[in-house]
Design brief:
Elements (H helix, E strand, L loop, with lengths): L9 E4 L6 E4 L8 H11 L7 E5 L5 H9 L4 E6 L2 H13 L6 E5 L14 E6 L15 H7 L6 H11 E11 L4 H10 L2 E10 L8 E8 L6 E2 L3 E2 L9 H7 L6
Parallel strand pairs: 3-4, 3-6, 4-5, 6-7, 8-10, 8-11
Antiparallel strand pairs: 1-2, 7-9, 8-9
Length: 251
């Protein structure tokens, strides 16, 4: 196992069906948004679906979706070679090479391994910041993960329209301030927004994340799920967050 890890890496237990992931703080480690998105997806899909995760990073969403769904196949696409290599080692670590496939690729120029009109579900936890917005991190990997340097929301929608089956479903997590543009672009690319769920850090703060479900060639009709509050005023997780993480609630 010592030879399996590289300098600076660690193995984290995901607390789900004994699944583990390799992380390196020098790169972009997964956060709550990936956990929330995986939960959101798992609550809304059934059966042996084919899933593709865009910008999979170190493979956290494919691993969580494997643990939470009965997907027939899960593919993760990542443009950064070091993250692809790390994700593949995590898949090997869990013995899931036949269930989860990690592809090095660019969604703007998908290769033959990505099949048009094939996927039932497209998932993405994309970069939130516009390319010129905010302070960019000195680490290129973190900059690419946080800013729309190599792909933006429109690229994700173009890919989804091409690669999803008719009536396939797209799931995103993003910032509420980008929601107007996202919904407009989704309708432009014939992906109808069907459900939103806003995430609030606490009851007294504004929403800082929104979960989005869209359907290719779907009919108009939008529902909003009950808001999800992350923290009580005392700083403890709410019961909903404990349940999403699969953690035991404190007495």
């Amino acid at each position: 196992m010592d030879n399996f890890l590289k300098k600076g890496e660690r193995i984290e237990d995901l607390g789900l069906n004994q699944l583990k992931i390799i992380q390196n703080p020098d790169f972009f480690c997964f956060g709550m948004d990936a956990v929330l998105l995986s939960w959101f997806v798992s609550q809304r899909i059934k059966g042996l679906v084919h899933i593709i995760d865009l910008g999979t990073g170190t493979g956290i969403i494919p691993l969580l979706l494997y643990g939470k769904t009965k997907a027939a196949s899960i593919t993760g696409v990542e443009i950064q070679p070091p993250l692809v290599e790390m994700a593949n080692r995590s898949i090997t670590l869990n013995g899931l090479s036949e269930k989860i496939k990690i592809i090095e690729g660019d969604i703007k120029n998908p290769g033959d391994e990505m099949i048009p009109n094939y996927y039932d579900v497209v998932v993405s936890n994309p970069p939130y910041m516009r390319a010129k917005a905010g302070l960019k991190n000195n680490c290129e990997t973190k900059t690419i993960s946080r800013h729309e340097v190599l792909c933006n929301i429109e690229d994700i929608l173009i890919f989804s329209k091409r690669m999803m089956k008719d009536h396939g479903r797209l799931f995103l997590i993003h910032r509420p301030e980008r929601l107007g543009d996202i919904m407009s672009l989704m309708r432009h690319y014939k992906i109808e927004v069907k459900q939103l769920q806003f995430i609030y850090p606490s009851i007294k703060k504004e929403a800082n994340l929104v979960l989005i479900e869209g359907r290719k060639s779907g009919k108009p009709g939008l529902k909003t799920a009950a808001p999800l509050i992350v923290y009580h005023e005392d700083g403890q997780y709410t019961p909903e967050i404990y349940d999403i993480y699969g953690m035991k609630r404190p007495e």
